[in-house]
Specification:
The complex is a heterodimer of chains A (86) and B (261). Chain A is mainly α and 86 residues long. Chain A has a domain of 40 residues. Chain B has 261 residues and is mainly α. Chain B has two domains: 70 residues, Helix Hairpins, CATH 1.10.287; 187 residues, Cytochrome c oxidase, subunit III, four-helix bundle (Four Helix Bundle (Hemerythrin (Met), subunit A)), CATH 1.20.120. Chain B is built from seven helices and no strands. In chain B, helix 3 packs antiparallel against helix 6 and helix 3 packs parallel to helix 7. In chain B, 24% of the residues are buried. The chains are: A mainly alpha (86), B mainly alpha (261). At the A-B interface, helix 2 of A face loops of B.
Chain lengths: 86, 261
């Protein structure tokens, strides 16, 4: 079960079961991974680290989130009106 | 001459239920005229007829009870049940607003930033005026109990003093709350936070005003010697209502002002 993260990403098909989000409604799952990717990206670029460690979150939110939500949130971020804490 | 063989009150025919119902129609259609057609006439007419109905209906009840003696113990029991059931219905009314608040605040949506208070909302500090408001209402609960005990003991002067303190505390609460409304950086249209905040606290404030009015009526009735030391249901009903208003505030304070910040 304790696979290497690289193996997990190589074998990625879609977002796997995450016990943090056990219910049918995955809004929070999408939201949390979207936030986590952007927080990770922001932290890594600030420290000059490798952004590829954030890839897992990117994969999950791309699988789960409705495209319309992602484009709206990306637009909000560009405008500076994104309500989430990144 | 025929007498009734029971102690219940067979009320004489009265026009006030009809005028009350008509005033309700005028007020509701008046609201529509105001919201959609920019006309206040019907609403004002409705509010006027409503006020007149309330004044005359309750005046008649005082005449029947205090002056004509129709409020026997069994009649008073019915009035007690009535007031209790009414207050219970008001509890359910507020339950709806608390439900709305908890529904939105326990699982805040992405549009709010996934957090409560929502991003960009800066709530009032619960340790400032809201805490003062809490102490004002709690103190008014003490003073109204003092008024009741004075009444039970036949101490007229102290009853009037304690009741006037209670009323003044109620007015103080209303003034403080009004000033707080000006202080908020958010309005009713600022996300579900603004909606739940102002609906819940707004209706509570209305109930404080209603309760204060009821207490003021009791004050004038006491001045006019309507109450005796063992028959003063109007005052008791006002006191129950006042305690209810206080309890609702405590829930509001803990849920919306304190936990919700």
């Amino acid at each position: 079960m304790a696979e290497d993260i690289k193996t997990k990403i190589r074998n990625y098909k879609t977002a796997p079961f995450d016990s943090c989000f056990p219910n049918q409604n995955h809004t929070r799952n999408c939201w949390q991974n979207y936030l986590d990717f952007h927080r990770c990206e922001k932290a890594m670029t600030a420290k000059g680290g490798n952004v590829s460690v954030c890839e897992w979150y990117w994969r999950v939110y791309k699988s789960l989130c409705p495209i319309f939500w992602v484009s709206t949130w990306d637009d909000h971020q560009a405008e500076g009106t994104f309500p989430g804490k990144i | 001459m025929t007498h009734q063989m029971h102690a219940y009150h067979m009320v004489n025919p009265s026009p006030w239920p009809l005028t009350g119902a008509l005033s309700a129609l005028l007020m509701t259609s008046g609201l529509i005229m105001w919201f959609h057609f920019n006309s206040l006439m019907l609403l004002i007419l409705g509010l006027a007829t409503n006020t007149l109905t309330m004044y005359q209906w309750w005046r008649d009840i005082i005449r029947e009870g205090t002056f004509q003696g129709h409020h026997t113990p069994i009649v008073q029991k019915g009035l007690r049940y009535g007031m209790i059931l009414f207050i219970i219905s008001e509890v359910f009314f507020f339950a709806g607003f608390f439900w709305a608040f908890y529904h939105s605040s326990l699982a805040p949506t992405p549009e709010l930033g996934g957090c409560w208070p929502p991003t960009g909302i800066y709530p009032l500090n619960p340790m400032e005026v809201p805490l003062l408001n809490t102490s004002v209402l709690l103190a008014s609960g003490v003073s109204i109990t003092w008024a009741h005990h004075s009444l039970l003991e036949g101490n007229r002067k102290q009853m009037l003093q304690a009741l006037s303190i209670t009323i003044m505390l109620g007015i103080y609460f209303t003034l403080l709350q009004m000033s707080e409304y000006f202080e908020t950086s958010f309005t009713i249209s600022d996300s579900v936070y603004g909606s739940t905040f102002f609906m819940a606290t707004g209706f509570h404030g209305l109930h404080v005003i209603i309760g204060s009015t009821f207490l003021t009526i009791c004050f004038f009735r006491q001045l006019k010697f309507h109450f005796t030391s063992n028959h003063h249901f109007g005052f008791e009903a006002a006191a129950w209502y006042w305690h209810f208003v206080d309890v609702v505030w405590l829930f509001l304070y803990v849920s919306i002002y304190w936990w919700g910040s």
